[in-house]
Amino acid sequence: MAGQKILIDAFGSDYPDQIIDGIAEVLNQIDGVELVVTGDEEYINNALIGKDFDKSRLEIIDCKEVVTNDDSPVDAILKKKNSSLSVALKSLREREDVILLDTRTPFEYMRGHAEDFINIPLDDLRERLGELEKDKRIYVMCQSGLRSYLATRILMQNGFDAYNFAGGFRL
């Protein structure tokens, strides 16, 4: 699993202490893995005090802010299904160093997509790598999580800094 980047949604979890313990355990036991955690940054940082692990392999996206009414209709759906994902997406959209990539088919994308995600279907990704900037982090989404996982692997093998949104997006 070395070289993997894993997104963990800890916001609103019924088991925050187990997630915090799991973060430290993964970072201690698996060399090369990096974690991106969505949640209450202050809570996570406080809970990690005293735990011994390589903090340089952990990024926390603060999701304790409330999503505004400026959300797109798709974001409103995401908010109902998983409010922390909406907050994480809003936070990511504001960053200049990020590309949001949707690897679903053009038809799936046309039926609805999260705001600011560009569509490059998995089947076209290898031929369209030149459209992506290697100096930006790429967060990848699909319908169920499988295509985005495969896309993340392709991107990483080609020198991109890519993260998979596990779970996917569907209307």
Give a quick rundown of the structure.
This protein is 35% helix and 19% strand. It has six helices and seven strands.
Describe this structure in words.
The chain has 171 residues and is of the alpha/beta class. Helix content is 35%, strand content 19%. The protein contains 6 helices and 7 strands; from the N terminus they run E-H-E-H-E-H-H-E-H-E-E-H-E. It has helices at residues 16-29, 41-48, 73-81, 83-93, 106-111, 146-157, and strands at 5-9, 34-39, 58-62, 98-102, 118-119, 137-141, 161-164. It has a 4-stranded parallel β-sheet, with helices on one face. It has a 3-stranded parallel β-sheet with strand order 1-2-3. Helix 3 packs across helix 4. The longest helix has 14 residues, at 16-29. The model is unreliable at 66-83 (pLDDT under 50).
Features:
6 helices, alpha/beta, 171 residues, globular
Secondary structure elements and pairings:
Elements: E1 5-9, H1 16-29, E2 34-39, H2 41-48, E3 58-62, H3 73-81, H4 83-93, E4 98-102, H5 106-111, E5 118-119, E6 137-141, H6 146-157, E7 161-164
Parallel strand pairs: 1-2, 2-3, 4-5, 4-6, 6-7
Helix pairs in contact: 3-4
> Biggest sheet, strands in spatial order?
5-4-6-7
Low-confidence sequence ranges: 66-83
How many H/I helical runs? 6
Amount of beta strand: 15-25%
Proportion of residues in helical segments: 25-40%
CA-based shape: globular
The largest β sheet comes out as: 4 strands, parallel
Q: Give the helix/strand class.
A: alpha/beta
Helix and strand pattern: EHEHEHHEHEEHE
Based on CA atoms alone, the radius of gyration comes out at: 16 Å
Oligomer type = single chain
Number of strands: 7
Terminal Cα span? 31 Å
Mean pLDDT: 74
